[in-house]
Protein 1
Amino acid sequence: MSLKEELNNDIVVSMKAGLRAVVTTLRGLKDEVQKLEKNTGAELDDSGFVRVVQTLIKRLNDSIKFAEQGKRDDLVLQYKAQRGTLSHYLPKQLTKEELEQKIEEIAGSMDPPNLGSIMKALRRDFDGQFEGKLAAQIAKDYL
């Protein structure tokens, strides 16, 4: 079952369970996916779907940061709940230690290693399984 089919099933299940906040979040995701498909003229595969989820989660992380600065605990809770709902559609994330190990392996196989080639290899092999900023920082520290 593709991630889009899973999303549609989750919307139906959440509606039947009366989970309004979850339904709203999932419909927002579905809307973003449909908007991107309409703009590109092609149907998204699972990797494209994951990129949309990652984009939405990044937006939510920024919103959480601003809500915390504004002392809006109600919004912080709401955004964290939305982030939790969306994170279900991401592949298993690499831990910091696993990411460090993968970067060391990749850099060790390159002659000479550089940040761009390390990041490119990471994206090729582990797309959607890590946060780009964290990976870039670890790679910079390694180099």
Note: Residues 3-87 form a domain with the Hypothetical Protein Yqey; Chain: A; domain1 fold (CATH 1.10.1510.10).
Protein 2
Amino acid sequence: MSATRRWFRQAVLMGCLAGLLFCPQAVVAVDKADPAAKIKELLQERLTIVQKIQKIIKLQYEKGMAGYDVLREADESVLKARLDLCGTKQDRVLVYQDMVHEAEAWHKLAEARFRSGFNMKQVDLLKSAAYLIECRIALERATAEK
């Protein structure tokens, strides 16, 4: 290695060290990115993914290709992801209201399928009724919390 090259490397290294010594907050700012913002970004990413999964499963359920348990699991994943993003009681109440409306719609579909004999077991009908009640209870609790 030539003397010029060695000198240049040393100068760059010394410049970097001087920067670290005289501007330590620059390093801290890079290392300590806002954890709350990163967490919110990850929570939003998770919500987007579970909503895509839910959409696929809903289509499969409507066509009789997926059972009620799979649909409910997808709905619960979306509910949990949405609740994790809530910042206020009002936000949580709105999420639970949406879930009650959705559970009501799926229960009506389950009832219609059961009556028509369309690949619907009585136990799945009862599960949809129980889930609707669970959503209503969660809404009442969220509304009552201080």
Note: The chain has a mean pLDDT of 81.
